[in-house]
Write a structure and sequence with these properties.
Helix 20 packs antiparallel against helix 21. This protein is elongated. It folds into 3 domains: 2-117, MgtE N-terminal fold (Alpha Horseshoe), CATH 1.25.60.10; 140-248, CBS-domain (Roll), CATH 3.10.580.10; 264-436, SLC41 divalent cation transporters, integral membrane domain (Tetracycline Repressor, domain 2). Mean pLDDT is 83; it is low at 1-8. It starts with a helix and ends with a helix. By secondary structure, the chain is mainly alpha-helical. It is built from 21 helices and 5 strands. The longest helix is centred in the C-terminal third of the chain and has 31 residues, at 373-403. It has helices at 2-11, 13-19, 22-30, 34-43, 46-55, 58-67, 70-79, 82-90, 94-101, 106-116, 123-126, 140-150, 175-180, 204-214, 234-252, 267-294, 296-301, 309-332, 341-370, 373-403, 413-436; strands at residues 159-163, 169-174, 198-199, 218-222, 228-233. The chain crosses the membrane at residues 276-295, 301-321, 352-371, 377-397, 409-431. Belongs to the SLC41A transporter family. Residues 127-190, 191-249 form the CBS domain.
């Protein structure tokens, strides 16, 4: 917000509000205080306020709605895209969401409820039910007239679905085709099936990755019997990917995603997001304590072995985290699937072995100079085993999670590190017993 106030001082507050690019202005307002955000929204023209409001984070949209007068609140709600409105309402307590729904017109309320009735992570939640639908019997001239009359409420007209009178999807046609075609040419002759349709119940992330990989601006959304009910646009798909990647990033750090801007998150919500996994990891870490306790006599006879415990569990944990992070990402972008488990295991095992061999060779040379050769041999052999095991465990745990329908990010760096710590110590002491006879 400091940058916002500096900009306002230089240009004049109203000039800054009028001249700043919408996405940049929305970003600034998302990071502003509630009072400054409200002041800015009140100073904007109605048309620009509607545009900026739609770009704010849902939690900040609610803050604005609660601070403006009833007339402005109704206008802002009315001008929102149906899918954006549903996204905001889905994040609110039921009572507040229901109160805001009552301020919509009957048609808007029905449309929004329809979207909210779909499962949370389904295509139906992010689709836009407002689009220009062309029919196969239309001429190009008819289609242009339909576009002119429907473009105000439609989310996009760059690519439009073609459906019959029963709303059965027949294909799509893009605006460039229509503009370049002869006025009396029929839409049926222009429509193609190059753009795949998706089911209203399909997973959002799957659709978003399809759109990104195939470079699709929109995809039609259908129900049973290919009945057209909406479209998903590229910008909505990218929001899904941002959200999913944020979830994966949070869970890779052993915390739950909070789903809202950081500075707007209450302390107790942050504690709740982190405490559960911290407790799970604490329980898992007890394995390490048990291993140390079991080999207490070994440590007492060769105290020097204790010096290398932090080194070994650190390298093993990092090797496992590297592998887990790589496979979580590969699963997310569909580079690999669970049936590739054996190939993944073989590749990561070899990778871990070669890494361990390289580190062990360096360790053997250095430790032989500073310590007893038997200590150097124990540490070096352990490094080879730990790196190999860590890479294998780190690669297979996310795959197993996917098979069990658990988010693979859950079994990422911290969890893998904890498991590898305990197993690495077990390997260390077993190698010490074998080499040194302790």
């Amino acid at each position: 917000m400091k940058g916002m106030m500096l900009a306002a001082d230089e240009l004049g507050f109203k000039d800054w509000l009028a001249e700043t690019e919408p996405h940049m202005l929305a970003h600034a307002l998302d990071h502003a205080s509630s009072e400054d955000r409200t002041q800015a929204m009140r100073a904007l023209s109605a048309q620009r306020a509607d545009r900026i409001f739609g770009l704010l984070e849902p939690v900040n949209q609610l803050d604005v709605l609660q601070s403006v007068d009833e007339r402005t609140r109704r206008r802002l709600l009315h001008e929102m895209e149906p899918d954006d409105r549903a996204r905001m309402l889905s994040d609110l307590p039921v009572a507040i969401g229901e109160a805001l729904l009552q301020e919509l017109t009957p048609d808007e309320r029905a449309t929004t409820r329809t979207l909210l009735d779909y499962p949370k992570h389904s295509a139906g939640r992010i689709m836009s039910p407002e689009f220009v639908r062309l029919t196969p019997g239309m001429t190009v001239s008819d289609a242009l007239e339909a576009i002119r009359s429907g473009q105000k409420r439609a989310e996009t007209v760059f690519l439009m679905p073609v459906a019959d009178d029963d709303m059965r999807l027949l294909g799509t046609v893009d605006l460039a085709q229509i503009v370049l075609a002869s006025p009396d040419m029929r839409i049926a002759d222009l429509a193609g099936r190059d753009v795949p349709a998706v089911s209203v119940l399909d997973d959002q992330e799957k659709i978003a990755r399809l759109m990104k990989s195939a470079d699709l601006m929109i995809v039609p959304v259908v129900e049973e019997q290919d009945r057209l009910v909406g479209i998903i646009t590229f910008d909505d798909a990218m929001e899904v990917l941002d959200f999913e990647e944020g979830e994966d990033f949070a869970r890779s750090g052993a915390t739950e995603p909070v789903g809202r801007p950081y500075l707007s998150v209450p302390v107790l919500r942050l504690v709740r997001a982190r405490m559960v996994w911290l407790s799970v990891l604490a329980v898992a870490a007890s394995l390490t304590v048990n291993v140390l306790n079991a080999f207490e006599a070994t440590l007492e006879s060769v105290v020097t072995l204790a010096l290398f415990i932090p080194l070994l569990i650190g390298i093993g944990g990092n090797a496992g985290a590297q592998s887990a992070t790589t496979i979580v990402r590969a699963l997310a972008v569909s580079d690999v699937v669970p049936r590739d488990a054996l190939r993944i295991a073989w590749l990561e095992t070899r990778t871990g072995f070669v890494m361990g061999l390289g580190i062990a060779t360096f360790a053997m040379i250095l430790l032989s100079i500073l310590f007893d050769p038997s200590i150097a041999l124990v540490v070096s052999l352990t490094l080879v085993f730990i790196c190999t095991l860590a890479a294998l465990v780190g690669s297979l745990m996310p795959v197993a999670a996917r098979v069990l329908s658990i988010d693979p990010a859950v079994f990422s760096a911290p969890f893998v590190t904890t498991v590898v710590d305990a197993s690495g110590l077990l390997i260390y002491f077993m190698v010490a017993r074998a080499v040194m006879g302790v």
